[in-house]
Amino acid sequence: MSPEPVRHRRRIPPVSVRTLLVLVVLVPLGATFGFASAASAHQWTSRDQAISTRRTSLGFDTLMYASAAVTREYVSTAAIVYAASHHISVGVLDKLLRIHFDKQLAVAEKGVDSQPILRTGGLGTYYAKLLELRQQVAAGTTSFATVEALFQGFTKQIDTRAVSALDALGNGSDSSAPQAVRNDVAATRLAFSAIVAGLQQVTYAQAVLTTTATTIQIADLIASNEQYHSAVVGFPSALGPDARAAWATIQRSGVLRPFGPAIALAVKVGLEHGPPPFATDLPANASFFRADVARVTDLTNLVIAASADLRTTTAAQEASATKGLEFDIGVLIFFIVLAIGGALLLARSVGRPLDRIMDAAHS
pTM score, two decimals? Predict the structure, then answer.
């Protein structure tokens, strides 16, 4: 029998003692470095999330200020045009209601003109139409229906942008965000729902109480009334500190007291298809028109306060994440230095004795 062929097995070269000792130091340090890196990445994400949410909140505030400015101009414009349709001059209207609508309108127009965002995109189209409407109002060549249609379309465009901003806030505060941030985003949504429904109450109630309203206007009034009460049912417990203070101001406001009964009356008139009760007795209902203007201001303050609460919370989130990030980076640097220094010291402390042993073995 022929001898079996010799099989040459590959031998894995032995790992030196120096390498093993270095690995003993580097492996735990590497694992710690990995954990610290993951923690730093989380803190960085949290910080960016807070900054993004705060910036979006500021953009949302801009839209709310613009919406309030447009609604203020609507209230004064609608009153003047409605009076003109009954052959009542602005001067007589001011004396009847003891409200200087012409002065209020001038202030409201400046407020609208001071909002740069109203000149952008689709809002710019409505702003251009508004400038034309102002000339028609001054010349007495427009109608109450035209005024309503323009301002309703304008505010709807603003609300559409505001909803997009709220959606961005929601996306920036997902389940990974702190609970306080998610609570403030939810409160801002509720406050926004309240102001949208509340301003619609102003628009539709004024139409039902002063003119022969359409079936759609009556249905919209009833819907906005239900939406408003649904939005505020959790107030003030669902709000942050600034928003709670703004809501308390609304609840205490004497100017707003006539508004609730007027809304109830408008709903009743609408359901019964009765005649507009304010059409023939404007002076007796002056308090309702004053409440309209106050309601616009107070509801705007509410939603701005809710947004401010959100920014306060995200500022705290950013500060906390920044401190955590600085700490984690410090830990990373420490372990990097420790790993390099430890490896060098170990290699040096073990290498010299090994070199002596090797020299002795070869001598």
Answer: 0.68
